[in-house]
Amino acid sequence: MKYTGRISIMVIYVVVSASFKISDYLELGYVPIYEFILSAIWIYPAWLCGLYFDKYRYYAQKLQKTEKELNELLEKRLEESEQRFKSLFVHHSEPIFTFNLDQKLIEANPAAENLLGFTINEFREKEWASIIDPEDLDRYKEHYLDAIEGKSQELTVSMIHKDGDKRVITIKIIPIIIDDQCIGIYEIAKDITESIVAEEMLRRSDKLAVIGQLAAGVAHEIRNPLTIVKGFIQIIESDIDRNYQELMLSELDRINQIVSELLVLSKPQVIKYEIKDIENILNSIISFLESQANLKDIQINLQFDNQMPFIKCEENQLKQVFINLIKNAMEAMPDGGEITVKATTNHNQMISIQVIDEGIGIEEDKIPKLLEPFYTTKEDGTGLGLMVCQRIIEQHSGTLNITSQMNKGTTVEVCLPI
Ligand SMILES: Nc1ncnc2c1ncn2[C@@H]1O[C@H](COP(=O)(O)OP(=O)(O)OP(=O)(O)O)[C@@H](O)[C@H]1O
Ligand SMILES: [Mg+2]
After folding, report:
1. Mutate which of 296, 370, 380, 400 to test ligand 1's pocket (most atoms within 8 Å of Cβ)?
2. Distance CA 342, CA 322 (A)
3. CATH code that applies to domain 92-191
4. Does domain 194-269 match CATH 1.10.287?
5. pLDDT in tens, 65-121
6. Among candidates 270, 254, 282, 265, which has minimal Cα distance to 344?
7. What is the pTM of this model?
8. Which residue from 57, 165, 211, 306 has the least number of CB within 10 angstroms?
9. CA triple 11-13-19, angle to 5 deg
């Protein structure tokens, strides 16, 4: 604490009292003793006044300093909490959007760009309602209004991706409340399309397991009478029209084929792997399918690398795979054309067999769906063909890969270990 107040008041006191009495003292030639005593009595209250003045100044300055420090601290805390919030907003892995009460997008975090393929600017330019499936729009609006009333909401809607696909999104709608007033809305979105697809797959594979069990039971019962009927048709060959007989036999073969396909779906099967020549397998399939191909004006070419190695396989199952693949290729070429079956070996570890057609092709985004059970675009298709192939190839530790170009053709490549 400084002495400014006390020193100043002392100086003023001395100067003022001296200036009043200086002429008296000069006349007397000395300062009387009682004047000293009087001055000493008066000097104490003057000193006290100075002291209070100094104290007041000291505390006022201290208060000012504390207030400044407090303000600085508050500002820092505010900035810190803003940064904390911003960090949560920016680095959150789920897309977060903020809207004003008129449902205009104010801000979105970087994860929002992964949601529907739109950039944040594109989101801003769009009406939010225009990317929600019209069927879900009313429900969404209801939830939005409820959220403005202060109640957080959660719902699942279908939203339209930039590429036109529909995605299933769950949205949490959270009111932004400041001073007891809702001033906007946070929306946290999550794309659950994949998990719904996975659920659907699970449901389907359950269905498939049931079909498998049924198939195992039924297939056995069908095959026996089938063999007997086939035998008799061959015996009575001479008595009926040869064309009818061929037709009946080929239809019986088809029934047999369907039954075998169902059998693959049935659960544990005893598979007998043997060392076989892939050239023989493919040759026998082609001769089996050639007549059908000729009818459709389709030519099947076989190409082999020199010295194809032998592979360990279950012959009938592999035959089924290539029959399915070539059948698909033929069905994709309603106007005829050429199917090439090309077998090559690479590095003596794998063989690759490609079934190449010149058919209608498959849209790129549909390719992953082809291996799903029951996916078919054909009126009389079961949608099981490729799935059965995939399963057989997996059991042989191989891979099946499909590439296609619309209106140019499709190549299905089967790789098998040697
Ligand atoms: N080579 C191909 N060219 C064009 N589309 C194909 C080809 N192979 C398969 N597909 C498409 O994949 C779908 C599924 O084929 P998959 O063999 O599993 O069943 P399917 O042929 O429809 O029925 P199924 O084989 O039981 O008669 C087909 O419906 C077809 O749309
Ligand atoms: Mg098929």
Report:
1. 370
2. 12
3. 3.30.450.20
4. yes
5. 999 999 999 999 999 988 998 899 999 999 999 999 888 899 999 999 889 999 999
6. 282
7. 0.47
8. 306
9. 100
